[in-house]
């Protein structure tokens, strides 16, 4: 006699006994996913498939390697094509790792290549699964999305190493971010005027003028400068299309 598949029986029993309220919420896809995770338990889903994260750097103050805070915040992500909501997680900027609150005392390091996107503390990130030698790869924040163009920002951290009498510790600081532009999922680095012109060779004159006229803004607030540049490139793209 074959042994019973208890996880399957549990899931089947849960589904056929959906309470009326949950059935109504199932009409909303997000509510349905939340209900399913609550019934099964996120730790029993395909999301909790990874290794225990071991911290490699000792820190002693708030100069740390994470986005915003070392503490977990509720966020959402798409993992192996499946959306998950209200997941406790944090983003290790320096190592470019998304970590989840594990079932033990250590964070859970899930398979980064299986993450399509995540949303945390008001930031929206996509994962560019290119070869690590490519100019654009890893987690990028979506700063702007207009038409067929996306403006992306790569958060970065740098560190200083301190040698105390009895141990070594590190302090992490925000480093110069990287930028990229995606045109119909074709990713181009955009960290300099030359790189932008390389992505839009037909608009070289306008791009040079833009950099020249907004040189001060590019130094004082590069995010705003890049947003304005992306908007201008979108306009030029429409003009070029209309002129054909």
What is the count of helical runs?
7
Q: How would you sum up the major sheet?
A: 11 strands, antiparallel
Hey, roughly how much beta strand do the residues contain? 25-35%
Please state the structural category: alpha+beta
How many structural domains are formed by the residues?
2
Give the spatial strand order of the biggest sheet: 1-5-4-3-2-6-7-8-9-12-13
Shape: globular
**Elements, N to C (H/E):** HHHEEEEEEEEEEEEEHHHH
Number of strands: 13
Computed Rg:
23 Å
Signal peptide: 1-22
Keywords: Signal
Organism: Antarcticibacterium flavum
Protein name: DUF4369 domain-containing protein
Structure description:
The chain is α+β, with helices and mostly antiparallel strands and 244 residues long. The chain folds into two domains: 26-191, no CATH class; 192-244, no CATH class. It is 30% helix and 32% strand. It is built from seven helices and 13 strands. It has helices spanning 6-16, 20-25, 29-40, 193-199, 204-213, 215-220, 222-242, and strands at residues 50-52, 73-79, 82-92, 97-100, 108-110, 115-120, 123-128, 138-146, 149-154, 157-163, 168-174, 178-183, 186-189. The strands form two sheets. Strands 1-5-4-3-2-6-7-8-9-12-13 form an eleven-stranded antiparallel β-sheet. Strands 10-11 form a two-stranded antiparallel sheet. Helix 4 packs antiparallel against helix 5. It is globular. The chain starts with 5 loop residues before the first helix and ends with a helix.
């Amino acid at each position: 006699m074959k042994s019973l598949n208890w996880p399957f029986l549990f899931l089947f029993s849960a589904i056929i006994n959906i309470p009326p309220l949950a059935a109504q919420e199932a009409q909303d896809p997000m509510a349905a996913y939340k209900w399913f995770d609550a019934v099964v338990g996120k730790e029993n889903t395909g999301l909790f498939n990874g290794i225990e994260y071991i911290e490699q750097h000792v820190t002693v103050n708030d100069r740390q390697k994470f986005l915003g805070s070392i503490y977990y915040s509720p966020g959402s992500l798409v993992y192996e094509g499946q959306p998950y909501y209200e997941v406790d997680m944090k983003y290790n900027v320096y190592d470019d790792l998304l970590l989840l609150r594990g079932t033990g005392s250590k964070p859970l390091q899930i398979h980064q290549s299986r993450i399509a996107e995540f949303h945390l503390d008001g930031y929206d990130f996509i994962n560019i699964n290119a070869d690590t030698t490519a100019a654009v790869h890893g987690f990028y924040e979506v700063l702007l999305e207009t038409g067929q163009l996306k403006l992306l920002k790569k958060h970065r951290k740098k560190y200083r190493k301190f040698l105390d009498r009895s141990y070594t510790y590190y302090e992490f600081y925000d480093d110069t971010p990287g930028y990229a532009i995606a045109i119909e999922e074709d990713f181009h680095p955009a960290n300099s005027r030359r790189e932008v012109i390389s992505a839009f060779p037909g608009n070289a004159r306008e791009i040079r003028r833009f950099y020249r006229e907004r040189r001060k803004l590019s130094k004082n607030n590069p995010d705003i400068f890049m947003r304005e540049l992306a908007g201008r490139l979108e306009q030029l793209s429409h003009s070029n299309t209309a002129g054909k």
